[in-house]
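pasting for the record
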Amino acid sequence: MMEEKQGFDRNQIIGFVLIGVIFMAYTWWAGENLPDEPVVAEQVVAVEEPMAISDAALPVTNQGISAVDSKSTTDVASLQGQDFVSNEAVAQADIVIEEYTLENDVVRYVFTNDGAQMVEVQVKGQKDYLGNPLMLVNRQQRLGGANEGLFVADHQGNHLSLTQGETTWTFELGESFGLAWSLVSPSEGSLDLTWFQDGIRHEKAFSQEVTTTTTYYWEASEGDESSLSDGRDDEESASNVSWVAHKQQFFSSIFTCDQHFTHVDLRTETPVQNDSTRTRAFRSKVSLAAVNGEIRASGLWVHMPNQYDMLREVDETFGNIIPFGWGIFGWISKGVVVPFFGYLEGLGLGYGLIIFVMALFFKGILSPLTFASYKSMAKMRVLKPEMDAIAEKYPDKGDSKKQQETMALYQKTGVNPLGGCLPQLLGLPILIALFRFFPASFELRQQGFLWADDLSSYDSIMELPMTIPFYGDHVSLFTILMAISTFMYTKMNNQMSAGSTAGNNMMQQQMKVIQYLMPVMLLVWFNSYSSGLSYYYFLSNILVFGQQWAIRKFFINEDAIRAKIEVTKSKGGRKSKFASKMESMMEQQTEGNRRTRRMK
């Protein structure tokens, strides 16, 4: 019995040892032949980490955007433990996220195969207000709609093709601005592309940059540009559109389509990341039409400065995004101001000197009107004693007899009471055209003169410890000089035109209010405006003082004017068109008063 028990124990021990040896041998053999799981894990990490970076750097991807398909990460992870996976899933798992650069002398693009996205755009040779490289796209833009998942890239020089299945995006950069794009993708109906972008701050005057940032688009059927409202939330829809532009103060991103977008839904709004690093949030959706079950579209994607001639070199219609003004104001800016400015710039003159020459030029053009205005005011001064006598005779300013005698005096002397202001009104279109030109002139951007470091923005001689409502947190010296010269100009003008308000104390009081109020308002309005514009207006006022002195000294003799008026009186006067019109109006008014009295 005992021997059987011991033999049984010995066999049991031997069996356990053999089982252990076999198990360890199998474990060693299985470990040598298992799939290389750490490699798969590395692939998962390689996908997941860039995605995390992309999400952090793209705040707009959480705002209803067709973002990069997160299934590219989930599908790779889900391959583990599956008995069967498709060839497409295996191909996606083998793709590593990479970035590709296309660049020339003026612009640099960076793309990723993660969603076929454009992730960076740098305009070369330009800096932002802090001196950093100027980025129009810096991980804050996304184009969605045909950009889901990972793409296979073919990158050769400045040519990039990104393919996923039957969808292919192609990008090609030439020697200048304008990135050619094309898309081939199966689609039964139209394809909607969502182009979401947050505008990056580039300029010192942030409020001015925000108010000049909006979306423009070109309606092919109308042959004209349209835009959303500047500086506030707005949205519009349109059909048959050639291009859409996300326009900021001095730089724009323009998306064109040779086949035209069949429909666009456009919106600009305050960015979710509402701070001083973002201007406006652009939310654009464009539709491409399918033909025979396929999208075949092409065009340009342009990122460039808002320089009028450069824009028109890329496309004749692009120049319309610069807000030079409508009607005659835009015509003067584009037809006169821009070419003359370009001519002076071509001479190699400094920008401070260019503005001075422009002031001389336009004052010279307007000098005949200025002379006519001062001559008319001189005539009114000669008539002042007689005008005062009529005012004393008829103290009631609404007395029709007073108006009749006044018009009779104008008729006898051949004086037009509006002759002093009409010539100045004719010069207003040039003044307004220049008002629109200077803040929109890319050429003045970051160009310094005297104490101003940027003629397209405000100059500052003092930073205030607080922000004054409507004024700002700085003091602009060019604006102060302009306001002082405007006060002097208005005061001198009031003195010269005193005769035209003879006997009208109310009008004289109103002119005094304007004389003191206008310079104060200019201080507020222009403190954060273009220093180049304030400098121009200051020069313009100084030149007016010189014109007034020269005209009164050498060209206008009030004694000679008085003698000529007396000769005209002796001949019975000549009725001007103005006098005839006023006389007719007064007769109608008198007849109306008579009828009213009869009815009573």
